[in-house]
Structures are given as C-alpha cells and as structure tokens.
Amino acid sequence: MSGSKRRIVRRSRKGQNGSTVVEFAIVAPLLFFVICMIIDLGLMFWVNLTMQYAVHEGARYAVTGQSNLDPNAASQQRYLAVIQDIEDASMGLYTLVNPAISVTVNGVPAAYGANMFGGPGDLIVLQLNCAWPLLTPLIKPFFTGGQYSFTVAATMRNEGY
C-alpha cells in the first residue's frame, strides 16, 4: 500500500512541472510593472525634493546680493550667479528638468536681467517650473506629455547689502 501511495504522489508532482513556469509568466509582467512604477514614483519625489532644495539654496544666495558664483569672471552678473548656485545645488538635475525661472520682487514679476532679484530689503519669490520624463510607459498617459510637471519655490527678503 505504501508503494502505491508513493507512485500517486510522484505522479501528481510530475504533472506540475510546467505549472511554475506558466504561473511565473502570468505574474511576472504585473510584478515588473509594479516595480517600475515604484521606481518612477520614487524618482519623482526625489527630483522634486532635490529641486526644492536647489531653489532654496538659490534664493538664499540671491538675498545676499553677491555675484561671485557667475562663471564669467570678467563681468559677473548677480542673476547668472544665482542660476549657477541653483545648478550647483541640483545634483546635475538642472539640465534634465529644464526649468523655467520666474522671479517676483515685492509682488511684481521681475524682468530677466541685472536687477532681477531686486534691491536691499525687497521680498523675492524664486520659482522654478520643471518637467521630469517618466520611465514606465504604462503610466505616461496619466501625465501630460508623459512628463511629471511640478513647481518649486522659495520666498526670502533681501539682506541690507
């Protein structure tokens, strides 16, 4: 009797040899999709926080009235120095998100140029509109243009330089 039970157990195991492969083939695409989505969401949050840090550092630098970070040593400009500080603090993401910079001085939009960040005592708002390309093709339709668009900003008052 014990011999026939062994044969039955062996037969049932032999019949399941291909079922593991079929089950994996069914579950694997869903598993990989979820893993890619988690990676995409994690990257979106990381990029957002990194750019928020970069705009904060840029605003901190802007309120001091300095211009020493401008790569052009011959005629350093304050607004170029602030942009350079944002690039330095963004961990290389600045060029990838291609931000549109807008500055408000005392509630009035500032013109791009030498006096872009106002004078001593002015309240400035530095804002970056960014777009991050998504990796997972199945979630791209849920975002405009297949990109995660976000805005980061920092508000500070200029020092009395």
UniProtKB/TrEMBL annotation:
> Which residues belong to any copy of the TadE-like domain?
18-60
An example Pfam family from this entry, by short name, is TadE
Transmembrane ranges?
Answer: 21-47
| Keywords recorded for this protein, A-Z | Membrane, Transmembrane, Transmembrane helix
Taxonomic placement? Bacteria, Pseudomonadati, Pseudomonadota, Betaproteobacteria, Burkholderiales
Classification via InterPro entries: TadE-like_dom
Indicate what this protein is called per its UniProt record.
Answer: Pilus assembly protein
